[in-house]
Amino acid sequence: MDTRNTSAPSCAPSxxxxxxxxxxxxxxxxxxxxxxxxxxxxxxxxxxxSRHTTRFTVIGNHLAQHRELSLLAMGLGLHIQSLPTGxxxxxxxxxxxxxxxxxxxxxxxxxxxxxxxxxxxRERTPGGRIVTRTIxxxxxxxxxxxxxxxxxxxxxxxxxxxxxxxxxxxAPPVAETDADESHTTPGMRPEPTQPKxxxxxxxxxxxxQPGYSSPDLLRAATAILADLSALDxxxxxxxxxxxxxAPGVAAWLERDVPPAAVRHALTSGLPPEGRHSPHHPAAVxxxxxxxxxxxxxxxxxxxxxxxxxxxxxxxxxxxxAFRAPEPGRCGECRPVAPGRTP
Length: 342
What we know:
The chain has 342 residues and is mainly alpha-helical. It contains ten helices and five strands; from the N terminus they run ααααββααβααααββ.
């Protein structure tokens, strides 16, 4: 009888679970409803969020869920807002950072600028240089940058300059491009303004006129102008410009200038292709035809014509030789006309 039964309970169960208080008299036990079973296939996204304490950026849903911005523009806007003040956000820097090319990044930046998430401001430094400052806005004012239009039509983005007082309270600049305006990266330049009527292209300057109009001379001048594009592709002229410049070239040919010399005078010394290339080649040619017109050739006294020497002929009457244009009689054998002395 010294063996203990290990399967027998030591005491009767009290009916109170661990960690619970015993029930009082006339108190019913609390029964919790069973937890709902998780769905076998949940629909939509399920978030598993953790609270950020360091290295986080607050992004508004107006950017993350924008209806008109592309996914690339949204990503660029999120990246730019997460950068510290002074970080460079030019196209070359972003193209080195992301696998997208410079063309797609430039298009995304233009979208952000059109919807008010970026602003480009040109300022002049004390040294006289023009720099472009980029300002990132985390809460753009859409009605200011996108005017209302008729229903069903997309509003065209219009840049409206802000007063200097409002810029003083705006968000701090994200990046500053310390470069001359002529070297600004394509795709991030401010929107071009329409030229005023007074700033339209001026008419071509006048060219010298020949002393006499000859169809052959004008035809040769037109051929010279047509051959200039083969020597320099930048000198491709329109029909209107060729008709305007042809009399000037004819004035050169009238002064005994060879066609090769005319081509050399019009094409030599032009700036190399690039930044200083001529934007209006017809005006450049008109200027050269006028300012470099050679003087007329010196006047030469016409020389006396050489005397005509007729061939020798034999006289039909006396068979003597004499010079005459046609055979016949010499002067002694010719009959004397009435009233003429022999």
